[in-house]
Amino acid sequence: MPGTSTTSAAASRTAALLLLGDGRLPAGGYAHSAGLEQAIARGWVRDAADIADHLRGRIHTTGLVSASFAAAAQHRTRLALGAGDLTGLRAQLTELDRELIARTPSPALRKIGQDLGRMLLRAMRSIVPEQAAVLAAAGPVLQQPIAYGVVAAALGLDARDAAGVVLYDSAATPAVAAVKLMSIDPFATHRCLAELAPDLDRLAERAAAHAASDPRELPSHAAPLTDIAAELHSHHDQRLFAS
């Protein structure tokens, strides 16, 4: 039938996006609040309006940075797959990893990013074993956004897809955690996510535009309170989330 292959490709892409965007994916993200727990404990976030501001600030700073690195990782992985030569991929991803770490002042956030990246790659090795070669070539330890970029390429997604998934994750992780931390109406938190949709789309386009950039030229927007919250949280005795 005319258009069947195109329809099939679109369905596969949609399924891959849903898989990566699913909070139930066993890659560890559900155990984190992305700094929101400490922000609530310190009184920086107190209600639904504060959550909306927190999420908006997050996607425009560290979210955009992470998305840009995911897009860059996807681009390099896709090129390696297209050339049929994965030998130089690890070195390219390692360079991206170093640059992202340099943009992450908090040692706690660096470790969290590394742990989540490792867990994502581990999960995907079991979920899509046919992609074992490219996942192995990427290396066992990468910061989470870079791991997302590799996985996106392995699943046939493009740079904008990778950026979009990472941006959504950067907002959805604390939004879902807010329900447990504040006993807030879950409809209110998801309304915040829905209202961010235009921003998420624009930021994904901006991030994807950096896919082929030199790693040193990738965005470096900072969110100092996020780094402070992560360090405070790592020494907090009573906590519900790992971060």
From TrEMBL:
Keyword GTP-binding (UniProt): no
Principal location listed in the UniProt entry: cytoplasm
Gene3D superfamilies: Urease accessory protein UreF
UniProt keyword Cytoplasm, yes or no: yes
Entry GO terms, CC: cytoplasm
Superkingdom of origin organism: Bacteria
A Pfam family that the UniProt record links to this protein: UreF
Record's function text: Required for maturation of urease via the functional incorporation of the urease nickel metallocenter.
Family membership noted in the UniProt record: Belongs to the UreF family.
Protein name as catalogued: Urease accessory protein UreF
Species, as recorded: Brachybacterium vulturis
GN (gene name): ureF
